[in-house]
Structure formats: structure tokens, C-alpha cells
Amino acid sequence: MTKPTALVTGGAGFIGSHCCLDLLMNGYEVVVVDNLVNSSAIALDRVRQISGQDMAFYASDVADQAAMDTVFRNHKIDVVVHFAAYKAVGDSMDRPLEYYSNNLTGLLTLLAAMSKADVKHMIFSSSCSIYGDATELPITEASPARPTNPYAQSKWMSEQILTDLCSRYPDWSVTALRYFNPAGAHESGEIGEDPCGVPGNVLPYLSQVAAGRLDEVQVFGSDYPTADGTAVRDYIHVMDVVEGHRLTLETGAVPGFRRYNLGTGVGTSVLELVEKFAAVSGRPIPYRLSGRRPGDVPELVAAPDLAHAELGWTARRNLTDMCQDAWRFQQLHPLGYEGLITTLGSSR
Ligand code: NAD
Ligand code: WQD
């Protein structure tokens, strides 16, 4: 039997590389498109090494129509898993047009190429950020979307484009997976999260403090209406996130547009996370309480029941697993994928 072939856009990135590995290990052919704007091709080499399998790679922009048409001509694609996007909230406030352009033009160009090639099945990376400052917790898929920054807005606009597409053309099958706070790394410690420059997200930041690369972590806000005053998030292991994609694929090309939260349903405060990472790493994590980070909300926790009921998916890993796996990647690759080059400011 021929293996189903998945085109993974953004496949060299944090979540994409783990998804490629999971798909290869579970009977899929994988084709990657990534322009490496926020990643390294070394991640793909590591995926090949761990899986013992190869995959095609195009160092192309998803917004390049000719390049995307070539990919669909060269491979018989069954499904597209679309990760490629810019993803940093703060950066999107500084560069709104770049975010709308990359995230929306990329999606529209990809859809045009799919349409030409008669490929009508997609999983789309959406985000809990579309919910903004949620008034009711835990957050269900029916909670209102109130994006508060250009990044989140681009994800919500993408969902609306995909909803309209599926309404007009009922033979399309699109599933938007709304991830909460992905964290951790593959258990091998060979692939993980390797942000360019100083990490903006809390878990890679803690990891670098534990490793001694950074002096201390600032805890943004200690006056929130939460148990210890620091903000609460729903951290979810990256391998649970990618298993959610595979289970979605296993439900087949269900016609229409669907959306699911991928979270654990468990909230963790920043101070609880600092304490957990210190315990797991066995290293002190100096921290300093400071003011709230603009745009942050007090608490975001998913109701993951719909994904459980309809996809048969449940997060299987806990916060200790996330910290242990992130720490293993940090220890095995203290300077990330490209070692010294990265710290010298290579644009990759
Ligand atoms: P990432 O930056 O590590 O991966 C994105 C990848 O897409 C990178 O490898 C980048 O080089 C590539 N890319 C970006 N624009 C491209 C373009 N125009 N053409 C080709 N490649 C392009 O980010 P990630 O954390 O792996 O996120 C993957 C997806 O999940 C993104 O769509 C993101 O918005 C979404 N998401 C991420 C999080 C999170 O916290 N990590 C949470 C919710 C949703
Ligand atoms: C978590 C908590 C910070 C850094 C973002 C996006 C969201 C999704 C996941 C893409 C917050 C605090 C952080 C630090 C800190 N991504 N913090 N010190 O902001 O919840 O979510 O990533 O879709 O859309 O908004 O994640 O890891 O940046 O922050 O105290 O040095 O840690 O204030 O409360 P966030 P984060």
C-alpha cells in the first residue's frame, strides 16, 4: 500500500519539526516547505537521523506561487499541514503589515496551489491567542474570538477565510487546531525549541537561565487575580500537540471546517513553572518580580473536551515531562542548532 503524503509547511520550525518526525514514524511520506526565516535545516537532518527516514525539502516561501505549484507538480500530496507563519505577538505589534502579509498571503497562495492540484485537505495551525482576554474559563471553542494584536488577528482572519472556503466548496476538509502554550521537546533531546536571539517565551527563557546563559528571569506581573498573583497558562507538550495533528489526520478528510482547542485543561502560574523547572534541572533559577508585560492576560486555560470527544485526543504528558525534555535538549545542545554561529547573530 502506498503511504499517504503530507506536505508540511514550516516543517523546520519548533512544532513543524516534531510533526515531521511523528508523521514519518507513523507511516507517512513527508514533504517540507520552509524558507528558514525562523529555523534551521539542521532540525530536518536531526528528524532524518532519529526516524531513519528521508523527506523532500524545499527551501521556499509559501507565498511564492511558482515554487508552490512546483511542489504540487513534483509530489502527489494527500494533505497539507500548514505551520508556516510568523508567530511572535510583540513583534507583530511592531511589524503589523509584515505579519498580515506573511500569514495571509502565505495561506492564500498555498490554497491557490492546492486548488490547482486538486488537494482539498488541510490542517491549519491556529492559536489560543484568538480568544484574547477570555471572560469565561476554561475556554471552549464556542468562546468568542477577541484578538488583541496583529498576530492573533491574522490567525482569526485565516480561520474566517478557511470557513468561507469550506462553506462555498463543501468537498474541502479543513481543521484548525488552536494550540495553547506548546513547550518541551522530543524525548531524544535532539530536536526542540531554538528561538533566534533572547527567547520571548517563558519556558525557553527559564531553560537558558538554568543553563547559566541568562542571569535571571523577570516574572511579568505579580498582581494578577490568580492564586499567587502571577499569570496562569495552559502549557502543553509539543509531542502532544503533534499527536493531535496525527489523530486529526486519522479521522480522515471530514468535509467542512472544524476547530479544536489543543490544551491540557491544567493551568500553571509563572512562579509554579519557575519552581518546577528549578526542581527538574537541579539548578537555581533566580527571578525578579516585575511589572506586567503589555498585552498579557491573567489566565488562559483550555477546555480540551471537544478534541477528546471527536478526535480521541488527550494530552498524555505533564509539566514535569515538558521541563525534563526541554532541559535535555538544552543540555545536549547548549547553543541551539547552529552552535556558535547562532550566538554570533547569524540570520540563518
Ligand atoms: P516556528 O517559527 O518555530 O515555525 C514556523 C516555521 O515557518 C519556521 O520554520 C519558519 O522558518 C517558517 N516560515 C515562516 N514564514 C514562512 C513562509 N512565508 N514560507 C515558508 N516558511 C515560513 O513556530 P512554531 O512555534 O513551530 O509555530 C508553528 C505554527 O503554530 C505557527 O503557525 C504558529 O503561529 C502556530 N502556533 C504556535 C504556538 C507557539 O506558541 N509556538 C502557539 C499557537 C500556534
Ligand atoms: C507565558 C507567561 C508571561 C516570559 C504566547 C502567545 C500565544 C501562543 C503561545 C502563538 C506570561 C510570562 C514570559 C518571561 C514571564 N503562541 N513570562 N517572563 O504570552 O502566554 O503566549 O505564546 O500562538 O499566542 O501569546 O506565552 O511564554 O510568552 O508567556 O513572566 O521572560 O510567562 O508574562 O504570563 P504567552 P509566553
Cα-to-Cα separation, first versus last residue? 39 Å
Per CATH, the superfamily is NAD(P)-binding Rossmann-like Domain
Q: Could you estimate the helical fraction of the residues in percent?
A: 25-40%
* Share of β-strand residues: 15-25%
**Overall morphology:** globular
Q: What is the CATH C level class, in words?
A: Alpha Beta
Largest sheet: 7 strands, parallel
How many domains is the backbone divided into?
Answer: 1
> Strand order within the widest sheet?
3-2-1-4-5-6-11
Short description:
The protein is α/β, with parallel strands linked by helices and about 350 residues long. The chain contains 12 helices and 14 strands. Helices cover about 40% and strands about 15% of the residues.
What does this structure look like?
- It is globular and about 55 Å long.
- Helix 1 links the parallel strand 1 and strand 2 (29-33).
- It has helices spanning 14-25, 42-51, 65-74, 89-94, 96-117, 150-168, 202-210, 238-250, 270-281, 305-311, 319-332, 339-343; strands at 5-9, 29-33, 56-58, 79-82, 121-127, 173-179, 181-183, 217-220, 232-233, 235-237, 256-262, 268-269, 287-290, 299-300.
- Mean pLDDT is 95; it is low at 340-348.
- It contains 12 helices and 14 strands.
- The protein has a 7-stranded parallel beta sheet, with helices on both faces.
- Helix 1 runs parallel beside helix 2 and helix 9 crosses helix 11.
- It has a single domain, classed as 3-Layer(aba) Sandwich (Rossmann fold), CATH 3.40.50.
- The protein is α/β, with parallel strands linked by helices.
- It binds nicotinamide-adenine-dinucleotide (NAD) and UDP-4-deoxy-4-formamido-beta-L-arabinopyranose.
- UDP-4-deoxy-4-formamido-beta-L-arabinopyranose is lined by residues 87, 89, 127-129, 181, 200-202, 205, 217-220, 231, 233, 270, 293, 296.
